[in-house]
Design goal:
This protein has 203 residues and is of the alpha+beta class. It has helices spanning 6-34, 106-110, 153-163; strands spanning 36-41, 51-52, 55-57, 60-64, 86-93, 96-103, 115-124, 138-143, 148-150, 175-181, 187-194, 197-200. Strand 5 and strand 6 (96-103) form a beta hairpin. The longest helix has 29 residues, at 6-34. The protein is globular, with a radius of gyration of 21 Å.
């Protein structure tokens, strides 16, 4: 049996670790490139929390019009304790995708729509309307594990200015997230859609 010295063993372990990392990055890139693309609303982004160095934080929120109830299977938030991971069904809502229901298993979520993704979802229903007052919208918040990505500082500043216009119930947000949903049901961020123009992520 061939014996290796301590130095060579360290090099072998390091090489295996590098190969594993390269394989993981390659697999993630393949899943991102071969998944189903979905554009998701970023209503309700707080511009004060957008920037952290050169990273852009993403908050996925969909406005819920007055009079519309929460999607089935999506509970009211915020919740106490660890959030329950569910399968969330997405369907077209105008020029983007929105959550239309959720279930504990993939088959259950697919009854609402064929495109499903794993994550957490909470709903804030529209508040009751007092006589003579203006109806206010609610919101559905999604946590799909795509919460930030890297851009240059100048690009981050531009995104911050656009996202400052995103408020629940206001005009349509000029910024939306582009995600790829793989066969495994995971969402992977591809970039942002800003005033109709795509900005891809840097890996």
């Amino acid at each position: 049996m061939m014996a290796f010295g301590p130095g060579r063993r360290v090099l072998i372990v390091a090489a295996l670790a590098i190969l594993s990392l390269v394989g993981l990055v390659a697999r993630e890139s393949w899943e991102r490139d071969h998944g189903t693309e979905a554009v998701l609303s970023m209503q309700g982004v707080d511009p004060r929390s957008l920037l952290s160095g050169d990273y852009v934080a993403i908050s996925l929120q969909e406005p819920l019009p007055p009079g519309r109830g929460c999607p089935p299977g999506i509970g009211r938030g915020p919740t106490t304790g660890p959030a329950r991971r569910v399968w969330i069904a997405l369907a077209a809502e105008g020029d983007h995708m929105a959550a239309v229901g959720a279930a504990a298993d993939r088959a259950g979520a697919a009854r609402f729509a064929p495109l499903v993704v794993q994550g957490h979802a909470t709903c804030s229903p529209p508040p009751p309307v007092d006589p003579g007052s203006t109806p206010l919208p609610g919101s559905v918040a999604l946590d799909l594990g795509v919460d930030s990505f890297y851009v240059s500082q100048s690009e981050a500043q531009r995104i911050s200015q656009l996202a400052a216009q995103c408020a629940i119930g206001a005009a349509p947000c000029p910024v939306a997230a582009i995600v790829s949903i793989g066969p495994d049901g995971r969402a992977r961020l591809r970039g942002l859609l800003m005033n109709g123009q795509r900005t891809t992520i840097s890996l």
